[in-house]
């Protein structure tokens, strides 16, 4: 399961627990209030850990790409035939500015990163 889906599932479980906590609070059931409070805290910790791991991986990938010796914007003609570009330049990584990685790199255009000039 991807981290994004796992975070979404945990958030859904937190939401359910919060609704059950409200119901237990209205009934003044102390054992259930305590149980759901602990469950919510546990789930929130898991979400925080997953988000931290996700940002760590993103920063690691951003660092690897920014350390590549050559990068330049990809022209519209090259974007139209991406397969030919990837065959011509082995190991090229193309990043779109609207993806998480593109936003982390703060690029404005579709950019290619490679070990050698292309």
UniProtKB/TrEMBL annotation:
Domain of life according to the entry: Bacteria
Pfam family, one: DUF2810
Compositionally biased region (Basic and acidic residues): 59-80
Recorded coiled-coil stretches: 7-53
Region (Disordered): 59-82
Keywords: Coiled coil
UniProt name for this protein: YibL family ribosome-associated protein
């Amino acid at each position: 399961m991807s981290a994004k889906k796992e975070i979404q599932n945990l958030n859904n479980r937190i939401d359910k627990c919060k609704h059950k906590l409200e119901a237990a609070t209205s009934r003044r059931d102390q054992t259930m209030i305590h149980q759901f409070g602990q469950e919510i805290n546990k789930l929130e910790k898991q979400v925080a850990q997953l988000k931290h791991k996700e940002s760590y991986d993103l920063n690691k990938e951003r660092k690897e790409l920014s350390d590549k010796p050559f990068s330049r914007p990809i022209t519209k003609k090259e974007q139209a035939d991406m397969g030919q570009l990837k065959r011509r330049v082995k190991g090229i990584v193309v990043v779109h500015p609207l993806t998480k990685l593109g936003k982390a790199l703060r690029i404005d255009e579709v950019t290619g990163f490679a070990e050698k000039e292309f």
